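re the bet — no i am not wrong, look at it urself. input seq straight from the record:
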Amino acid sequence: MSEMGPRSLPLVTVVTPSLNQGEFIEETIRSVISQSYPALDYVIVDGGSTDATLDILTRYEGRLRWISEKDEGQSDAVNKGFRMARGEILGWLNADDLYCPGAIGEAAQRFVEDSDVMMVYGAGDDIDDEGRVLEQYPTEPFDFERLAYRCIICQPAVFMRKTLVEHVGYLNADLQCSMDLDLWIRCGLAQKENPRWKFVYVPSQWAHNRFHVQSKSLVLRKKHVEITAEMVRRHYGFLPFNWVYGLEELRSGEYDGILKKSPLRASLVLRSLAKWAWVNRQQPGHLAQFLFNCIASPLESWRSLKQRTTS
């Protein structure tokens, strides 16, 4: 990264929503305040924790701003933090996730170089409660159509101009799952209206996305996938096969598709295909394109399916 003079540094506000994450939040805080980036505004919005969180936050007073009060959930807490932000660039780091060294400075450099850049995101990986890497997050360059099939943006590795967040209307406070994917989709729709806006992917490791037994992504896994599937149908008008497969995988209650993937079974695949065809019965174009892709690229389709299983 090239040198930036103090006057050219944009102020970056990082928002951390928190509720009873005392086991992880201090490591999260350290990953933020140890960044070699001087123009930093760090805000923690706590929902009224009853564990050690408030004691930890008190120890770091002077290096961050924090409030602790009842809120309406994670989306509401993040929105509070965004509205409190003093910076022109916003980051959102959950209380159990981590930044990699240098992430904020690298992101800020992209905004300095090009005023049309509205969002920058890097690579990330999924880690467990002890910080062991589970797998690389499947991050890709921004593509609005690809967001229908998977979340290709690693949420803790994202930085946005505050003007973009204000333009799209902040997080949907009614959502307690998949609110990040909903935000990326709405950003993509806004980009269609403002074609000069750039969403830039930087293939550098910027964040660790933590999964543990108490994380919402696992505790509410079935609800998470159900909400995502409905959201995708609402925005795109069809539902890709992978979301139907995920819902069928979760039906037994034995698998979560992340830490516990189901074995590859013909019965699961066929049942998912039947439901997918029924759900998309009024979208013959989508059905035909999916089947064409499977026939034209059988090995790629097989690899994609195999990644979802234990085999």
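see?? The CA atoms of residues 191 and 197 lie 6 Å apart. told u. also Residues 221-236 form the longest helix (16 residues). so pay up
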